[in-house]
Design goal:
By secondary structure, this protein is an alpha/beta fold. The protein has helices spanning 15-26, 67-70, 72-86, 104-114, 124-133, 138-147, 157-163, 172-176, 188-192, 221-234, 252-261, 275-284, 299-306, 336-348, 357-363, 366-380, and strands spanning 3-7, 30-37, 56-61, 94-97, 118-122, 150-153, 179-181, 206-212, 239-245, 266-270, 287-289, 311-314, 328-331. It contains 16 helices and 13 strands. Strands 3-2-1-4-5-6-7 form a seven-stranded parallel beta sheet, with helices on both faces.
């Protein structure tokens, strides 16, 4: 019986972990999911009912919004002290740290003390915050990767980024041999209801764009809106609209103000939980647009492609490198001019894009992804 300890700081905040844990449970894996929290309200978020009687969740409210966000060593110390009180490490075969720094740092010390192998996943925050900005942590980050048995990359583009990190130069050969690219899966609804791209869905000169997600600064939706306004100026004879689905985030007011000022160009739908309604919006669109500054993978790209939409995405982020360039256009620089130019290219050549729907379905089925993770776990036990 394989016994896995998951250390996941953001388990309560993302369904990604829940989907993986659920599929591993179906495979008979005994699991302990440890997640440190800042708020009691998050207790039991994304919990599931296990079929394995010994599997359990440990939601531990031990973090705060101030010191822990600044003092990484202090946060690490608190988690280490707490997790050792609540987990029996004699019953653990392998540890999965779901982030390189926040979770991997804990796993590093546990592995040394209890001689338990661990794997680590590298995500957006690891590369774009910890590794990029917290320079003093880089030597420790290198030690975490050296000690880990496997390094999981959610995005294919992160492989070249990780291997180009100067702080990892001494360990490059060792690290390179541990890399495993395992993308996130999507909800089974999108796999079961996958469509195929069939060119323009409406009138030849009516183009519908769609964005789905939160309205955070990193998604660059105000910039996208400026590009849509510019598109309508440049592409005379075309009517180009952007449907915005989602809410919450620092850019909410800007996005809503733009939508009110330009009702002919933007339709704001807010958050949509009903997958059928969201699927209908995807199917009514011609292009999916999300020029994010940073994106670990971006499951909405996959949802959109499975509904037949070519995508506008950002170079070296998200799905970049996982599929051929024929899935859409990648933005190299996050400027209004660059986004406008790429969208003009997409609109002018819409029927030329190729979406490998069957391959996408296989790659992002959580049941298949869980099997791959289980093979990784077992290879180190």
């Amino acid at each position: 019986m394989t016994k896995i300890l998951h250390i996941a700081n953001d388990y309560a905040g993302s369904t990604v972990y829940m989907n993986l844990v659920g599929k591993l449970d179906n495979l008979g894996v005994e699991q302990v999911i440890y997640t440190p929290l800042r708020e009691e309200e998050l207790i039991d978020n994304n919990s599931i009912t296990f079929t394995h009687i010994k599997s359990k969740f440990i939601y531990s409210v031990i973090l705060n919004w101030h010191i822990d966000r600044v003092l990484y060593p202090y946060k690490l110390y608190k988690i280490l002290k707490d997790i050792q009180r609540k987990v029996d490490f004699n019953q653990i075969d392998c540890i999965h740290a779901h982030t390189w720094y926040s979770d991997g740092g804990v796993a590093y010390f546990l592995a040394k003390k209890y001689n338990i192998p661990f794997i680590v996943t590298v995500r957006n925050t690891d590369l774009n915050l910890f590794q990029k900005k917290l320079v003093y942590l880089r030597p420790f980050g290198r030690k975490v990767l050296e000690k880990s048995k496997s390094i999981v990359l959610i995005s294919a583009s992160y492989k070249s980024r990780l291997l180009s990190e100067r702080s990892l130069k001494k360990s490059l050969v060792q690290i390179k041999g541990k890399l495993r690219i395992l993308p996130n899966g999507v909800d089974k609804y999108w796999v079961k209801n996958a469509g195929k791209f069939s060119g323009f869905k409406k009138k030849e000169h009516e183009i519908n764009l769609i964005y789905v997600g939160r309205l955070t600064a990193g998604k660059n939706i105000p910039l996208l809106q400026e590009a849509v306004i510019e598109l309508n100026k440049r592409m005379k004879g075309h009517r180009i609209r952007l449907a915005i689905v989602g809410g919450g985030g620092a850019d909410s007011d800007k996005v809503l103000d733009n939508a009110r000022l330009h009702p002919d160009f933007f339709t704001f739908h807010g958050k949509i939980q009903d997958k059928e309604k969201l699927a209908n919006l995807y199917r009514a669109a011609d292009i999916f647009t999300m020029p994010s500054s940073h994106e670990t993978f971006g499951l909405v790209y996959v949802e959109a492609m499975l509904q037949g939409l070519p995508i506008l995405y950002t170079a070296n982020e998200g799905v970049d490198g996982f599929y051929s360039d024929m899935i859409g256009e990648k933005v190299q620089q996050l400027t209004v001019e660059e986004v406008t130019t790429k969208l003009i290219k997409m609109i002018s050549n819409l029927a030329s894009y190729e979406l490998p729907v069957e391959e996408i379905k296989r790659n992002h089925d959580w049941a298949e992804i869980a099997k791959k993770y289980l093979l990784v776990y077992k290879s180190h036990i």
